[in-house]
Amino acid sequence: MERVDHLAHERNKSEFDVDAMKIVWAGSPHAFELSDRISKLVASDPGFRKDNRTMLSRKDLFKNTLRKAAYAWKTIVDLHLSEEEAAKLRFYVDEPAYTDLHWGMFVPAIKGQGTDEQQQKWLPLAYKMQIIGCYAQTELGHGSNVQGLETTATFDPQTDEFIIHSPTLTSSKWWPGGLGKVATHAIAYARLIVGGRDYGVNGFIVQLRSLEDHSPLPGITVGDIGMKFGNGAYNTMDNGVLQFDHVRIPRDQMLMRVSQVTREGKYKQSDVPRQLVYGTMVYVRQTIVADASCALSRAVCIATRYSAVRRQFGSQNGGPETQVIDYKTQQSRLFPLLASAYAFRFIGEWLKWLYTDVTQRLQANDFSTLPEAHACTAGLKSLTTTATADGIEECRKLCGGHGYLCSSGLPELFAVYVPACTYEGDNTVLLLQVARFLMKTVSQLGVKKPVGTIGYMTRVDHLMQCRCGVQRAEDWLNPSALLEAFEARAARMSVACAQNLSNFDNPEEGFAELSADLVEAAVAHCQLIIVSKFIEKLQQEIPGKGVKQQLEVLCNIYTLFLLHKHQGDFLSTGCITPKHASLANDQLRSLYSQVRPNAIALVDAFNYTDHFLGSILGCYDGNVYPKLYEAAWEDPLNDSVVPDGYHQYIRPLLKQQIRTARL
Ligand SMILES: CC/C=C\C/C=C\C/C=C\C/C=C\CCCCC(=O)SCCNC(=O)CCNC(=O)[C@H](O)C(C)(C)COP(=O)(O)OP(=O)(O)OC[C@H]1O[C@@H](n2cnc3c(N)ncnc32)[C@H](O)[C@@H]1OP(=O)(O)O
Ligand SMILES: Cc1cc2nc3c(=O)[nH]c(=O)nc-3n(C[C@H](O)[C@H](O)[C@H](O)COP(=O)(O)OP(=O)(O)OC[C@H]3O[C@@H](n4cnc5c(N)ncnc54)[C@H](O)[C@@H]3O)c2cc1C
């Protein structure tokens, strides 16, 4: 039967070259080809089916995840996929699994914190999956406060071993993904104790389970921590609990890039900053930022397509009702999210560049950009994950009642995504790190020249007193006007915090007292980074008919939407007047009208298969209603017309009501 495209009329309206935009979204023609090929491969293979996840019991769900992970590995090996292709395949399989932590944290931790010899020994085993690793840092009692971890690694010079021990209940490792049921090895973070002295937290490679029968090794108690938020969702992951009872490991299983313990029991610190022990977190925060655009664009694709299909009210002379996407309120909720998805895509690309740059510098013993890289990864991880989690939930609401159905894909997407606001650093804790960086920068003005993302602070005198030059709504389309408003707001908020801090005798007390304001200053700084990198992106040549124009519209929507949402900041710091705010809002409305005819094409440019989207509401052809109707009948509750439990619980009730009525 011929497939009808219910969204064809929308696609015909678009004013730009969608194929060219697909390449911009993917990052390059090569990245597009790879993504397109691998996503289709996964979508066409029934072994990767995922539409039954929310109906399975935890045990069945987990076993199914194990099957899929093994099947994915077999596919990777059989097809001789490259590392890049394999990573894409795991991405499109779209099921959180122990492999995320193995490839995403265990391998990077060895690469970043292991010596050359340690890498040569452990990486080949990990690459072939002859060992499976997890990242065991967080404990029952401490997650955010890494320096507060209690697990100990005490050097025994007699045997040349470390004794890994959990001295208290609160020192039990708690949360590591893959730990609960699968990992054979962990990078366990523990306090390094040498000669009775505590040298702080370091990573150790510890074998947890037998490579023969998977049973825990002596001294290891390990299991899963239990069900998490949502059906299906992150419950495919075996987040685990782990206790060590005086577990002995050879000395050379301490990750020794940052500091070493010699055979004689001497502690030595390398020439690199101690903070490199936290290096894996910096790496993963960067990948989480890149991932935010994927999750948000998925939700936006679903909500945009459905908003074009859904009609409600407004019929004229018996004609069709209004598509809900034509309501200005729908547009003002949806289009900023569409623009955010693009903004996050570009900031993810830029952050990857920054991370590569800092890694190369570290290899050449240049540590100068590490504080900025830490502040950027921490702050952008916080900002993008918060906006994405909130955005997915907004997309669910944008889809009305049907958005609440699991078959919309949105509840599961939200449940899987929302812990990103907590893992890899609680978002508030991370913004406080950015605030520390900002306060240090302000306190050193005149002594140390701010560079990179904080470079705008060199113009602090101007930014503290400049006046917005916007006179007409269109003036807000000028990138310099936008940039200056955002720079002035960020600078003024940071300087105000620094001035307030100077009123405290004890700076730490002051920091704690003013922490809510400091978080707002950090948000302003991070939003400025995203805005400025989006604007920079548009200064490059971008091929394809109308592509650049569409991106300019999206950039302006993203920026003016932030200005509108945070207008309290802009007004109270005197960066703009109420008149400027009102003109910005006028401009925003006009931009929504410009994006409207292109909305469907802009989400098509994500190039998501129906399999990956996993949503009836977001399906490419927009044929939503028959699919929803059919899916309802697939629910196990509809296996029988009369439900199980009728005779036990419904019939007696009905009979009793009849007797009561006769009385
Ligand atoms: C479904 C999955 C979807 C998408 C993901 C995609 C791919 C990712 C792949 C796999 C991931 C999958 C699932 C996620 C798994 C999540 C795993 C985890 O959660 S692991 C545990 C993470 N834990 C944390 O993040 C803990 C947060 N806490 C900290 O980082 C630190 O404790 C702290 C808050 C930074 C404080 O540390 P500390 O007390 O030591 O620091 P100070 O504030 O005193 O600072 C001292 C000094 O150090 C600087 N600094 C701190 N951190 C760093 C750093 N990382 N790098 C560089 N420098 C750092 C700080 O700025 C201070 O500098 P100074 O002021 O002295 O100049
Ligand atoms: C799904 C999931 C997967 C995870 N995977 C792993 C893993 O693989 N490996 C691993 O080691 N860990 C993992 N974690 C743990 C995760 O990294 C921690 O939960 C996270 O770092 C937050 O720490 P916490 O739980 O101690 O939160 P807490 O710090 O206890 O946060 C509680 C509240 O206190 C606030 N707060 C804390 N400190 C401050 C402060 N200084 N100032 C102001 N407010 C503060 C926070 O903002 C938050 O509101 C995972 C967690 C989740 C949810």
From TrEMBL:
This is Uncharacterized protein. It comes from Vaccinium darrowii. The lineage of its organism: Eukaryota, Viridiplantae, Streptophyta, Embryophyta, Tracheophyta.
